[in-house]
TrEMBL record:
<keyword id="KW-0560">Oxidoreductase</keyword>
<feature type="domain" description="Ketoreductase">
    <location>
        <begin position="13"/>
        <end position="192"/>
    </location>
</feature>
<dbReference type="InterPro" id="IPR036291">
    <property type="entry name" value="NAD(P)-bd_dom_sf"/>
</dbReference>
<comment type="similarity">
    <text>Belongs to the short-chain dehydrogenases/reductases (SDR) family.</text>
</comment>
<dbReference type="Pfam" id="PF13561">
    <property type="entry name" value="adh_short_C2"/>
</dbReference>
<dbReference type="InterPro" id="IPR002347">
    <property type="entry name" value="SDR_fam"/>
</dbReference>
<dbReference type="InterPro" id="IPR057326">
    <property type="entry name" value="KR_dom"/>
</dbReference>
<dbReference type="GO" id="GO:0016491">
    <property type="term" value="F:oxidoreductase activity"/>
</dbReference>
<protein>
    <submittedName>
        <fullName>NAD(P)-dependent dehydrogenase, short-chain alcohol dehydrogenase family</fullName>
    </submittedName>
</protein>
Amino acid sequence: MTQTPTFPDLAGASVFITGGGSGIGAALTEGFLQQGSRVAFVQRSDATDFCDEMEDKTGNRPLFLPCDVTDTAALREAIEAAAEEHDPIRVLVNNAANDQRHATLDVDEAFWDASLAINLTPYFFAAKAVIPGMQAMGGGAIVNMSSISYMMATCGYAPYVVSNAGINGLTRTLAREFGVDGIRVNSVMPGMVVTPRQLEKWLTPESIAAQLDRQCLKRTLTPEDIVGGVLFLASDASAAMTSQALVLDGGVVTTG
């Protein structure tokens, strides 16, 4: 992993990450471990080997809690277990998602519900679970992983695009409601990040070349490119920043 900036206030912080054992989530787990944070993460598949690898690389072992984030009760129990092991959650990173491609006319009600059940609903209920503890300690940071997909009018995965628009709406309303408690809520909006899953499922040399043509920075983005921005939003370095969307896409979307 490339060198990341150091944020001293994250040392010892209790961090909870959904989908923290693969792709962008794995890079985020490693990034927080390098800060000396106490990291807990959930995912469905076994992550024992990944935890061993992280302990070897960082000297800091994450707490892996097997969980399907679409099971709200199980997600709440995992957060409670992490808080019991590491103290109340100071940083929540909502990251788990599934950007499966499909044609709109092929989407039925069951697929729609299942898509939102992983891409949007857990974001709300994970936040709901950690907020009381953050209120009690006088503040905290929630970072919601979104996407530039809904800003680009992309097609081929409508429920996912809708979910990412909803994530940014959720970010803003939670930031407004709980700012009085010192809780900051921001979202991160990556562009096309090249992961093994993306390469296996749908990225082609042609699609990568087309994306690079749209980017200002002429290189592919990797999960490590997302880590610094998330650490910044989690740390006191961004103490005055809330209700914002941080775009990390190599310069595709123009804001301001």
